[in-house]
């Protein structure tokens, strides 16, 4: 028995050649990232009230060479994170269930140049227009309050004094 123990301890276990590199057995996927597939699915479906998870999976299965059952957790994870980050809007439901639409900004805002700031003269004209609108609204409110109080005093005057 002692000979077996000596031989077992003498041979190194699990060590290979020193110059050997491990190569990954997994090939790179032929489909785009999940985020791109989901965004394209929502764009392609063009549903007014948003696209459901089931419709998104069906679109991805039809247009990309992927198994929707295997991609389901990745799709759900992306939907939740995209709603939280604001690149998608959830119109119905909670979590990964319900309907989803692309955000009004068109999804990701990276790489897009910002709109130039409006000129000061244009903002001054707009501000002046707002002030005029506010004055008109205030005048209408004041006149309607005057008519209400006048109507209330007229009702009080019509009541008989005996009551």
Automatic annotation (TrEMBL):
Stored InterPro entries: H1/H5, Histone_H1/H5_H15, WH-like_DNA-bd_sf, WH_DNA-bd_sf
The H15 domain, residue ranges: 30-104
Region span, Disordered: 1-37, 90-127, 140-163
Phosphoprotein among keywords: no
Keywords: Chromosome, DNA-binding, Nucleus
Gene3D superfamilies the UniProt entry points to: Winged helix-like DNA-binding domain superfamily/Winged helix DNA-binding domain
Subcellular location field: Chromosome; Nucleus
Cellular component GO terms held in the UniProt record: chromosome; nucleus
Family annotation (PROSITE patterns): H15
Pfam families: Linker_histone
Primary localization: nucleus
A GO MF label: DNA binding
Ranges of compositional bias, category Basic residues: 15-29
Domain of life according to the entry: Eukaryota
Function, as annotated: Histones H1 are necessary for the condensation of nucleosome chains into higher-order structures.
PANTHER family named in the record: H15 DOMAIN-CONTAINING PROTEIN-RELATED, HISTONE H1
Family recorded in the similarity comment: Belongs to the histone H1/H5 family.
Name used for this protein in its record: H15 domain-containing protein
């Amino acid at each position: 028995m002692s000979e077996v123990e000596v031989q077992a301890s003498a041979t190194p276990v699990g060590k290979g050649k020193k110059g050997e590199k491990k190569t990954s057995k997994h090939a790179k996927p032929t489909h785009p990232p999940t985020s791109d597939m989901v965004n394209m699915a929502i764009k392609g479906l063009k549903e007014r009230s948003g696209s459901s998870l089931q419709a998104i999976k069906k679109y991805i299965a039809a247009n990309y060479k992927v198994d929707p059952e295997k991609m389901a957790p990745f799709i759900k994870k992306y939907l939740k994170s995209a709603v939280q980050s604001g690149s998608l809007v959830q119109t119905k439901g909670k979590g990964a269930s319900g309907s989803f639409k692309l955000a009004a900004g068109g999804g990701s805002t990276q790489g897009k140049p910002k709109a130039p700031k409006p000129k000061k003269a244009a903002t001054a004209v707009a501000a002046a227009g707002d002030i005029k609108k506010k004055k008109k609204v205030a005048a209408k409110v004041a006149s309607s309050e005057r008519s209400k109080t006048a109507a209330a005093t007229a009702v009080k005057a019509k009541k008989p004094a005996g009551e």
